[in-house]
Design a protein that fits this description.
Length: 425
Amino acid sequence: MVSSKVRSRINELKDKANSWEETEVNEFNPKKALLDSDYNDMIDRLKKRVVLPNLEEPEKSPYGTPATYVNLVADHLTDSFDFSTVKEGLCMFDHFKTMIGDINLHFIHMKGSEEKNPIPVLLLHGWPSTVWEFRKSIPMLLEEGYTIVAPSLPGHGFTDPPKVTGVGPAVIACAYHKLMKKLGYERFVVHGGDWGSMIGCLITYIYPESVMGFHTTLNLIFSFGWRQLTQLIIGGMFPSLVYTTEQEKKAMHPISKVSEKQYRGMAYFHVQSVLPDSYGYGMVDSPVGLIGWIGSLYATASSSRDETKDAMANHMEGVENFGLDEICANLSIFWCMKSAQASMRIYYEFYWNDLDLMSSCYIPNVPVAISNFPNEITHVTEFVSRSVYGNIKQFTYNDRGGHFAHTDNTEGVVGDLISFIQKLQ
């Protein structure tokens, strides 16, 4: 049952979206936005960086990003990385910008084959990411004939930072829905990870009539009911009665160990929910700060975060999975577009404005698919997932991959998405 407060909030969001004026869609060239002068400024600053204090690291419970890792990434940027590959890679696709409400929204739009009934697929990235994350996935989906729309989150990459406060996941969800309507797509499939997962969930919750199916790689449940309580109590004592597969048991038992890992791994969430600007200034001004905060996450979120290893070993596992060039590509976009500070505000907006709405989400009828990856930052069983998603059509465990599945297991996430779409046809 939807409370009157939540219903009022949904109506308010819809009314606001309906009031947004129609504006033209303009072509956009990312090459003109990613300036060599900005990139060279980053390189100059890295070359002049101070000698980082290499303090003693404990065997477990790391203090944060190791200085050795920061120097590794900084040296690769200054000595080896080819910035032109980022510009060329992005220019494989058609880019556009349009004003929707208070958001000057950037998006990729690639039309599928008319012969193959081009189902529109809305691809949603999260933080700290950009549409660069989808550059290997989009061609694979186009081969299947699907039409692709991939917007940049506000303040991430090529979408401008909002000129007003209050632009959180709920407002962004309405803006993305408005974008799809503007492009002529009355019904479409939604896919997302990280914030893309939460925004996709909100699109499906607020506009269920528009969503053919929702596919996600980050399964977050913000409500707490009898299913969660049952799993917590019984699962702690008799895990075999609750966790139906070895993958579930490994990912979610024992709860004390899982909770500690999530607490440490989600430190950025706590900070950015209350003080996003305080950390953001340092990253806009210092590429070392950018590597130490954002650059670290690309590695750790792609690793197993094994508590028996030290911090550098876990970072190097993530580098092997994610790729050093991929880390540098993402960092170069964030630096050149000055995205770090603005991108983090979504955490604040969510925590203070949208948490109640997200916690109320219940999607009884829209088909849902959840694709789980072993190195994801959090996991939820199918049993608990049904407290939010009443029509789960596909619940998959992949053998490898992490939080950025489009980068470290492209074939796995795209194959799972295609499998789900085929079930909808």
